[in-house]
Design brief:
This protein is an alpha+beta fold. It has two domains: 213 residues, no CATH class; 144 residues, Sulfite Oxidase, Chain A, domain 2 (Alpha-Beta Complex). It has twelve helices and ten strands. A hairpin with a 2-residue loop joins β1 and β2.
């Protein structure tokens, strides 16, 4: 017997009977609508109840303060290299008006660069969870359609592109520099310097538009309040598993972990051992008077103990001509001591070490500048790597703590710490404390 049950018509057949000729178009429209609802541009795609203007406002105000400090300390780090002193120090020779603020970097307090660069790098790491949370909180706006509604909206989208892209670029290049000795193509100094100006300009423009609104929102309703027509709040939020305060606590906990595991590289003892996520310099130097961090080893620049043997001498040049000194002759001169740290652009530093050697101002007098040299060009024996030559200002030469160091902590320098002679200057970046010195040229730079 045949099946006498009547089969229900398919949706396509039903529509064909109801609207002859229009069924395929209607079905395609429905499919397209269903697909659009599953795309990131759909308002219901983003369902987290945490998102909203109040949550984003708190993160934005934290970043406002933190990024401002990052920008200022970054500019200070650039000034510490004295790029307007001599081309050998200048890694952005085409900076033009962007170098308007440069000034003669001081030698006091002697821990100045250790502080400013330590804050710059540590704060940059600590702000990573805040930045990622901020980007997560506003990601629905990046997919909003239409992408451009008016010329004003186009400018706003462009500023957001510069803001988000600039933030990611600066943080990524900075982290690469401190973690992996920088793997980004091109000069880190140039890319990071110009990227900072582009990013901070977009950041200021965005802050000028959003900070007043953020303050009003937090004053009126606090973190748990609502904002009429909130563009970040989901129209169909999922059941909450975490409050906004809980989400902020998670971000803060992430920043605290990064602080604990990074800040210690600027201290001795247990804090340095806790700094597992940041470099402490080159390989651990061991114990003893020379047992402190190294910015670059002799092997990394192609030097051996043979290169620094009995054939080494120091050439001192100036109005008095070219003078040559062996290490024994330098040791026979008046020796002076200075307690100074080494602080590097990667953010790590040592505690104060006791250096001993000949004052730069005494060598300047031998070179023909008894009342102080206007500047100094230092040249190293090293065969490769940046800053084989570095320039120092008159205030750095004249400071009585500035030495051509021959020993440290009661012993001669090790090869990795610059034997037979190195520069040590208060408050200067580590790369300006040139190691394996072969020539000092005093005079106008």
């Amino acid at each position: 017997m045949g099946d006498s049950r009547r089969k229900s018509p398919t949706p396509r057949a039903f529509l064909s009977r109801l609207l002859p000729g229009r069924a395929p178009a209607i079905l395609r429209s429905r499919r397209a609508a269903a697909i659009r609802e599953r795309l990131p541009s759909a308002p219901g795609f983003w369902r987290s109840p945490v998102r909203g203007v109040p949550f984003t406002a708190v993160l934005g105000l934290v970043l406002l303060g933190g990024i401002t400090v990052l920008f200022v300390t970054g500019l200070l780090s650039y000034a510490a290299y004295n790029p307007d002193l001599n081309p050998v120090n200048d890694k952005t020779p085409d900076k033009g008006l962007l170098g308007f603020y440069l000034f003669a970097w001081p030698t006091g307090p002697h821990w100045l660069y250790r502080l400013t660069q330590g804050v710059h790098v540590t704060l940059g790491i600590v702000l990573v969870p805040v930045l990622l949370a901020k980007l997560w909180s506003v990601v629905p706006k990046l997919f909003a359609l239409p992408p451009v509604r008016s010329p004003g909206h186009a400018l706003e989208r462009l500023s957001l592109l510069l803001l988000v892209g600039g933030a990611l670029f600066e943080f990524v290049t900075g982290l690469l520099n401190i973690q992996l000795d920088y793997l980004f193509p091109g000069s880190f100094y140039r890319l990071h310097f110009y990227g900072a100006w582009v990013f901070f300009a977009a950041f200021l423009a965005h802050a000028g538009l959003r900070v007043p609104q953020a303050v009003r929102v937090l004053r009126s309703g606090g973190l748990s309040g609502t904002v009429p027509g909130d563009p970040l709040e989901s129209p169909a939020p999922a059941a909450p598993t975490l409050s906004r305060r809980g989400a902020l606590a998670m971000v803060g906990a992430g920043s605290l972990v990064l602080l604990i595991t990074s800040a210690g590289r600027s201290f001795d003892g247990p804090p340095r051992r806790l700094a597992a996520l940041t470099p402490h310099g080159a390989a651990e130097p061991g114990s003893g008077p020379n047992g402190f961090q190294i910015n670059k080893t002799a092997a990394s620049v192609g030097l051996t103990s043979t290169d620094m043997g009995e054939g080494w001498w120091l050439t001192v040049s100036g109005p008095a001509g070219n003078l040559r000194f062996t290490r024994d002759q330098l040791l026979a001169m008046d020796q002076h001591s200075s307690a100074l740290p080494i602080a590097c652009v990667e953010g790590w530093s040592t505690s104060d070490q006791w250096w001993r050697g000949v004052r730069l101002k005494d060598l300047a007098a031998l070179a023909g500048y008894p009342d102080g040299a206007p500047g100094l060009l230092v040249e190293s024996v090293q065969r490769s790597g940046p800053f084989r030559r570095a320039a120092l200002r008159d205030n750095q030469v004249d400071d009585p703590r500035s030495l051509l160091a021959l020993g440290v902590n009661g012993e001669y320098l090790s090869l990795d710490h610059g034997y037979p002679a190195r520069i040590i200057v208060p408050a200067a970046p580590g790369v300006l404390n040139t190691k394996w010195v072969s020539r000092l040229t005093f005079g106008e730079l």
